[in-house]
UniProtKB/TrEMBL annotation:
Membrane-spanning ranges: 70-86, 98-116, 122-142, 188-206, 300-322, 334-353, 365-386, 398-426, 438-458, 470-489
Highest taxon above the source species: Eukaryota
Organism per entry: Strigamia maritima
Annotated protein name in UniProt: Major facilitator superfamily (MFS) profile domain-containing protein
Major place of residence: membrane
Membrane listed as a keyword: yes
Length: 494
């Protein structure tokens, strides 16, 4: 009897110790997962920073004209096509293996780029296009994997790791690689990226944080409906049928046709997937751009999203190249445009997020900072119009410093306005039917990138044909035109 009591007490004591250890182990596991996500998003942001801020200036120094440099922006096309291959990623049940394969392919792509002629713009562009294709494919898989392994309480930390990691990667890729290029050449940059991708691959494979998904229910993102077939049972099938019937009855009196649910968090636990028929119907029913115009306030929002960054994006793309043409040393331009500009944009995004928390003042903030942006673009345009020869004397040094500070502040305002605009897009998407919200928001995001990309590419021939003065005046007029457009701001978004 005494032995039995002793064994029972020891068992209870061990259970208490295990209960005390559980929070500490869970915290350690969370730190591990978030740290590896930070690493993966960091190496994912390196190529984008390299191609966005560094390579245009690099090729301008090499003597390429504006048409070819801005045509180089077409390498961003894979990011606009993410929605096209998202269903293919969803069909891959092992997202961990998918991410590992993309890391391996990125290593090979960077190794291939390291053997190319650094002065050949077209070959470097082809290599970066291939890298962007793999990275955009990886982005879909990594986002889905992150939602799978993170519990509900860890999603906020995971999102912070995504934003911080990607922004840090962009900063290193734009500014840090510039100084490395001056010392060892562009080939060494691609070789270093290959080593970093291989390092991330090794850590990803050896880590246990991505092997088992967290238990719980989460809202599945756009087109993310893939999981294991073996865990599908009769109860979940019946739950799906009941949910679809309920959705159909709720939407029968709406102006939109009935469709399967977009957010399936109440139907599909993390370890359950829908039957094939439901998946096919789900995928085929969401790609309807015409439905965007049936939602109040959307036509104005689409026009605004397509045009609100045109003047700003043109100036931010052309002014660093103008400084190089004016005789400013490349390392100074790389420092201000790459590192300082990125940090200012990040700070602007943070401030914009805080200002967007109050929906009642979003419109007033948007109008105010669009006016500030117009004033900054006006100043930079006057600098270009008043510069007929390279910067030389003390007076030019003062003008240069004012221009660099203005360019930095424009990057800050750019990040702030972008955050406010994306908040408006989220607010508008909430007014769409629940099963259409994710596609609605993704479609607007794609339009924002498409409008900016098309305008910047078109600016190249304009500069070569008519000069920098006409190009900057065009950006100035477009930024001025945004102010009357805001006067038609729909009341439903207020």
């Amino acid at each position: 009897m005494a032995a039995y009591i002793l064994v029972k007490q020891l068992t209870s004591l061990k259970m208490m110790q295990n209960d005390a250890e559980t929070p500490r182990l869970e915290k350690k596991c969370t730190i591990t997962k978030v740290s590896f996500l930070l690493m993966l998003y960091f190496v994912q942001g390196l190529p984008f920073g390299l191609q966005e801020k560094f390579l245009p200036i690099y090729f301008r120094v090499k003597g390429y004209d504006y048409t070819r440099i801005f045509f180089f922006r077409l390498i961003h096309l894979p990011w606009m096509c993410k929605m096209l291959w998202a269903p293919f990623v969803d069909q891959i049940e092992n997202k961990r293996k998918c991410v590992a394969i993309t890391l391996f392919l990125l290593t090979l792509c960077n190794l291939l780029a390291s053997y190319m002629d650094p002065d050949n713009c077209m070959r470097i562009a082809a290599a970066m296009l291939l890298i962007n294709f793999v990275v955009s494919f990886q982005d879909v898989a990594l986002d889905t994997l992150a939602l799978t392994i993170l519990s509900d309480s860890e999603l906020g930390q995971g999102n912070s790791a995504q934003v911080i990691g990607y922004k840090l990667g962009m900063t290193v890729g734009s500014g840090g690689f510039a100084y490395m290029t001056f010392q060892w050449g562009l080939q060494s940059v691609f070789l270093l990226m290959a080593v970093m991708q291989l390092w991330a691959l090794g850590g990803f494979i050896l880590s246990k944080a991505f092997k088992k998904p967290s238990v719980g229910i989460f809202p599945i993102p756009l087109l993310s409906v893939a999981a294991s077939k073996e865990t599908w049972n009769k109860a979940s099938k019946q739950s799906l049928q009941n949910e679809l019937k309920q959705r159909k009855s709720n939407l029968s009196e709406s102006q939109f046709p009935a469709e399967p649910p977009m957010c399936l968090s109440a139907v599909f636990p993390r370890n359950i997937s829908p039957p094939k028929s439901a998946s096919r119907n789900f995928l085929s029913s969401q790609y309807s751009y015409t439905r965007l115009f049936q939602i109040r306030g959307t036509p104005w929002l689409i026009f605004f999203v397509l045009t609100y960054k045109l003047g700003e994006a043109g100036v931010l793309s052309m002014f660093p190249l103008f400084l190089v043409d004016a005789g400013i040393q490349e390392d100074i331009v790389f420092w201000w445009n790459g590192i300082v500009g990125h940090l200012a944009s990040i700070l602007g995004s943070i401030v914009g997020g805080q200002l967007s928390s109050n929906r009642n003042t979003i419109f007033q903030n948007l109008v105010y900072f669009c006016i500030v942006r117009f004033a900054l673009i006006l100043f930079l345009t006057l600098v270009v119009l008043g510069t007929n020869e390279p910067f030389q004397d003390h007076r030019d040094s003062i003008k240069l410093m004012c221009s660099l500070m203005c360019l930095t502040f424009l990057s800050f305002v750019s990040g702030l306005i972008t955050t406010i605009t994306f908040t408006l897009m989220m607010m508008s998407s909430q007014k769409a039917p629940r099963n259409y919200q994710a596609f609605y928001y993704s479609a607007l995001s794609t339009m924002e990138v498409a409008g900016k990309l098309a305008f910047i590419i078109g600016m190249g021939p304009l500069i070569d044909q008519y000069g920098e003065d006409v190009s900057f005046l065009t950006c100035f007029v477009i930024s001025l035109a945004q102010l009357p457009i805001l006067s038609f701001y729909p009341d439903i978004l207020r």
